[in-house]
């Protein structure tokens, strides 16, 4: 089932408006919540222009999506070279490996993994987000860690 979903997603065009409307509602709720605002601000401070910095879509971004956009994204980003399968639990390793090899054996390589390693900011910065009337304060702190590479 997972192999079929990854390799041959259906992307029914009739479902996209519902999915986008649901996501827009969730997004408007998130933008009103201190935790989501703090997470978004922290990611932007730490990751700058890297995709890791974008935790929520920009205003109006979803309006430009159509089923062709979704299909194009899948074609440009999914394939055997960018896929790793992790399995946890009790299982027969050889049987599972054989089954995985069978269902993924003829999957096209697809695009190579993106070569855009994230580089966290090393600069001490702070940001304050005013929320007049709010009775809650949310604090996020990040410190440099081991490089992602």
Report on the structure:
It contains 5 helices and no strands. With 149 residues, the protein is mainly alpha-helical. The model has no long low-confidence stretch (mean pLDDT 91).
Ordered list of secondary-structure elements with their pairings:
Blueprint: H1 2-7, H2 16-30, H3 34-47, H4 67-77, H5 93-104
What value does the Rg take, in angstroms? 20 Å
**Which sheet architecture does the biggest sheet show?**
none
Based on secondary structure, the structural category is mainly alpha
Strand content: under 5%
Specify the number of helices: 5
Helix proportion range: 25-40%
Order of helices and strands: HHHHH
Please count the beta strands (DSSP E, at least 2 residues each). Answer: 0
Mean pLDDT: 91
Separation of the first and last Cα atoms: 32 Å
Low-pLDDT residue intervals, each spanning 5 or more residues: none
Shape: extended
Labels describing this entry:
single chain, 149 residues, mainly alpha, 5 helices, 39% helix
Concise structural overview:
The protein contains five helices and no strands. It is an all-alpha fold and 149 residues long.
């Amino acid at each position: 089932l997972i192999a079929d979903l990854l390799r041959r997603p259906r992307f029914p065009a009739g479902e996209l408006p519902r999915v986008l409307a649901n996501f827009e509602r969730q997004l408007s709720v998130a933008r009103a919540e201190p935790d989501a605002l703090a997470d978004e601000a922290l990611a932007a401070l730490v990751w700058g222009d890297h995709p890791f910095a974008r935790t929520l879509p920009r205003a109006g971004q979803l309006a430009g999506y159509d089923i062709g956009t979704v299909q194009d994204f899948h074609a440009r980003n999914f394939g055997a070279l960018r896929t790793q399968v992790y399995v946890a639990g009790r299982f027969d390793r050889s049987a599972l490996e054989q089954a995985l090899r069978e269902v993924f054996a003829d999957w096209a390589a697809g695009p190579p993994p993106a070569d855009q390693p994230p580089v966290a900011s090393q600069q001490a910065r702070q940001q304050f987000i005013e929320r007049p009337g709010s009775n809650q304060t949310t604090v996020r702190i990040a410190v440099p860690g081991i490089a992602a590479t």
